Every structure is written in C-alpha cells, then in structure tokens.
Amino acid sequence: MSTIRNHVQLIGNVGQEPTITNLESGKKVARFSLATNEYYKDSKGEKQTDTNWHTVVAWGKTAEIVEKYVEKGKEVGITGKLKTRTYTTDDGNQRYVTEVVADEILLLGNKSDK
C-alpha cells in the first residue's frame, strides 16, 4: 500500500518549453508547466472545459528525457508525487509552491509530432 501514498498520474499538454538547469553536482533538473483539461456540460447543456495548470519538476535521467523529447504543446503522461516547498520573497512574504515531481514521463501523440 505504500506505493499509492502521495502518487500522482496526469495526462496533459506542455504549456511552455521546459527549462533545463545543470547543477554544479552534474545533475540536471527540468521544469515545465502542464495543462490538464476536464470536460463537462453546464446547466444549459453546453460543453465546458475546466483547465488546471501544474508545475512539473524532473531530475536526473527523467530530466534528460524531457530535454530531448518534450516541447511546448506536446501531450505527455506523468507519474510522480506532490511536493510542497516554501520560499521568502524579496519583500519578506512567505510563499508556498506545490509541484509534481515526475518519476516517469510517457510521450504521447503521433509519431509525426516533433
């Protein structure tokens, strides 16, 4: 049962080109936004879309896959976990950020996609 604790699975479209950072340790980290859509019909029977945005962070080999194959607009599947961190802004306010730390990335879509 411990494998389903803090487990996230998402399928969505990449919202911006991933940013890749090479750390001093030689490790890579990739960050990108992912849009997931839910569809429903409103009270008038019209189709509506609810879009949620997620920040995805990938480390090491997963970051290398992101660097090579993931680009804006590409449909991807993500498995990972949620991680919340805090930071202090320049004006002294504390902020909280929740990110999806990706363990695996599945490239979706047609082979004809770039």
Automatic annotation (TrEMBL):
Pfam families: SSB. CDD domains: SSB_OBF. Keywords: DNA-binding. GO terms for molecular function: DNA binding. InterPro entries: NA-bd_OB-fold, Primosome_PriB/ssb, ssDNA-bd. NCBIfam families: ssb (TIGR00621). SUPFAM superfamilies: Nucleic acid-binding proteins (SSF50249). It comes from Mesonia maritima. This is Single-stranded DNA-binding protein.
